[in-house]
Specification:
Helix content: 40-55%
Number of strands: 6
Strand order of the largest sheet: 5-4-3-2-1-6
Shape: globular
Number of helices: 10
Order of helices and strands: HEHEHEHEEHEHHHHH
Largest sheet: 6 strands, mixed
Strand content: 5-15%
Length: 251
């Protein structure tokens, strides 16, 4: 099975667990990330799901959901699952700090993380996810995402792109991820278009001044680590993109 098909298959399994536990309180579930934009990598991709419920979950339902999904994910060949759960009211009118109910990261290839407090997590990830979801989310169950998720101001999204670039520069150990994240943020800044990391790199390649760096990042994403990325070149490229975002934001 191709990586894109595998991500979708795993996403549908997650939607099945959600539907079984929430019943009519499940409004919708969507794939985002590579599951929506394409270009999944068997070596690096996880399954990114945003779920929307009618109201906050009861404690016992939430615990059962976390337990069942944690068991399910351990059977996957992919890295794992990133699930964010919102109420319908929270996504219909998104806040600058998105008001999610549950943020769960779990899988064989990632550190387990379970959070319930939006104020304790960097908000930029969730702003980016909601913007991608509204325009590109792949429906697993429920209505199309644009009927559920309200629009986010472009400035909020650009600020989130800026913060994601800064975060990668300070925390991301995988330099290929930093390069490809910068490509995607750059294309959005210039064209207002979200695309897969592969397509974003193809767009950025003739504009980058260092196309070989992008080729190496794509090779690493595909599992070929024979060409180590030079940290200085990565830093120069991502700083250039960051400066472009800051110029677009203005004072």
């Amino acid at each position: 099975m191709e990586a894109d098909e595998l991500v979708e298959d795993c996403g549908r399994a997650v939607a099945g667990v959600l539907g079984g536990l929430l019943g009519g309180d499940l409004v919708a579930a969507y794939l985002i990330g590579s599951g929506a934009l394409g270009g999944a990598s068997a070596a690096q991709s996880d399954v990114d799901v945003v779920a929307v419920c009618a109201a906050p979950l009861a404690g016992d339902v939430e615990r059962a959901l976390v337990d069942r999904l944690s068991e399910l994910v351990m059977t996957w060949p992919l890295r794992g699952l990133e699930l964010v759960l919102y109420t319908r009211a929270a996504v219909a009118d998104p806040a600058r700090v998105p008001r999610w109910e549950l943020n769960l990261n779990v899988g064989r290839g990632m550190d387990r993380h379970l959070a319930r407090d939006p104020g304790a997590e960097p908000p930029h990830w969730f702003v980016l996810d909601l913007d991608i979801l509204r325009g590109h989310g792949r429906t697993l169950t429920g209505p199309p995402p644009a009927e559920v998720v309200g629009a986010l101001p472009r400035r909020w999204v650009l600020e989130a792109v800026r913060e994601s670039l800064r975060w990668h520069g300070e925390h991301e150990p995988d330099l290929s991820q930093s390069v490809l994240n910068a490509c995607r943020g750059w294309r959005f800044t210039d064209e207002g278009v979200w695309s897969s990391k592969r397509d974003a790199a193809a767009w950025a390649r003739p504009r980058s001044g260092d196309p070989a760096l992008l080729d190496d990042a794509l090779a690493a994403r595909a599992g070929d680590h024979s060409r180590a990325l030079d940290p200085a070149r990565v830093d120069a490229f991502t700083r250039r993109v960051l400066e472009r975002v800051e110029r677009e934001l203005g004072p």
